[in-house]
Design goal:
The protein is of the alpha+beta class. It has 2 domains: about 160 residues, Ribosomal Protein S5, domain 2; about 120 residues, Alpha-Beta Plaits (2-Layer Sandwich), CATH 3.30.70.890. Helix content is about 30%, strand content about 30%. Strands 1, 2, 3, 4, 5, 6, 7, 8, 9, 10 and 11 form an 11-stranded mixed sheet that branches. Helix 1 runs parallel beside helix 2, helix 1 packs across helix 3 and helix 2 packs across helix 3.
């Protein structure tokens, strides 16, 4: 077994539900979903070093939001990998928490998926993706789609992931009004309309305009109940629209919302203007990424 003496850096890109349809409540208590999922070049970062035992340190602007977690998803993912592969030992893991906690953009899920990718690579091993997906599905509904961190169509309770062609270049702004929203609170307020539940899986998009045309035929079924839980979400969507976004929507169960902009400079100007007008909000501009961005790399 060949270990890597140098630390590894693994990006954990923010997960964005560009659409999110809730089709039914299942007998197991979960809901069946359909979601077009993309990933942004905005996210958390894991740094891993070989060590005799597993340990986790957390820093970054949103580290405080995880202080009360006795059993972080990152450690649960790392232990699950170690149980599958006895040759994989411990790791000293540092999580740099750049994304707001419980904000609808899969921060914790992306972090866990980064641990699933990073720990085998640290020890020079490669686990089949189907093994990683099977482990991910036992840890949380959003984790399987974050394993590859590439554009995908997500179904079931999140465990059915179909990779899609990369989306066209797009400039995005993510905004959170400084609120954490409990997913369970949102689902408790959800009303499923039996007459408009499913949609067809999309094909490739030739341009941002084509993507927007498609998105306007879709919904986020959790947006209305999330607004009832956290009314400032409406103010975020208004702010993005006022800055010239060509499309806006809430991601996941909120409270983070996204807006697409025509150019990188317009996106950056919008994020800066929103942050200046609302200093307590979190606003970041970036672009969409695909699988290569999430590949473990030597830390520098």
């Amino acid at each position: 077994m060949a270990t890597r003496p140098e630390p590894l850096r693994v990006a954990a890109p923010a997960k964005i539900n560009l659409s999110l349809h809730v089709t039914r409540k299942r007998p197991d208590g979960y809901h069946d979903l359909q979601s077009l999922v993309a990933f942004a070049d905005i996210g958390d970062v894991l740094t891993l070093e070989c060590a005799p035992a597993l340990s986790l340190a957390i820093d970054g602007p949103f580290a405080q939001g995880l202080e009360g977690e006795a059993d972080n998803l990152v450690l649960r993912a790392a232990r699950a990998i170690a149980q599958r592969r006895p040759t994989i030992e411990g790791a000293r893991i540092r999580l740099t928490k750049n994304l707001p906690v419980a904000s609808g953009i899969g921060g914790g899920s992306a972090d866990a998926a980064a641990a699933l990718r990073g720990l085998p690579a640290l020890y020079g091993e490669r686990l089949p993706e189907e093994d990683l997906l099977a482990i991910a599905a036992t840890l949380g509904s959003d984790i399987p789609v974050c394993v590859a961190s590439q554009t995908a169509w997500m179904e079931g309770r999140g465990e059915i992931v179909t990779p899609l062609p990369p989306l066209p270049p797009a400039h995005i702004v993510l905004v959170n009004p400084g609120l954490s929203v409990a997913t369970a609170d949102v689902f408790r307020r959800l009303t499923i309309r039996a007459d408009e539940t499913t949609v067809s899986r999309p094909a490739a998009f030739a341009s941002l305009d084509a993507l927007v045309v498609y998105l306007k035929t879709t919904r986020n079924d959790l947006e209305a109940p999330a607004l009832a839980v956290a009314p400032p979400i409406g103010s975020v969507l208004d702010a993005l629209a006022q800055q010239g976004a060509v499309f806006t929507r809430m991601s996941g169960s909120g409270a983070t919302c996204f807006g697409f902009f025509e150019t990188a400079s317009k996106a950056q100007s919008a994020a800066s203007a929103i942050a200046k007008a609302e200093p307590r909000w979190w606003a970041r501009a970036g672009g969409l990424v695909d699988a290569d961005a999430a590949r473990p790399r030597a830390a520098t």
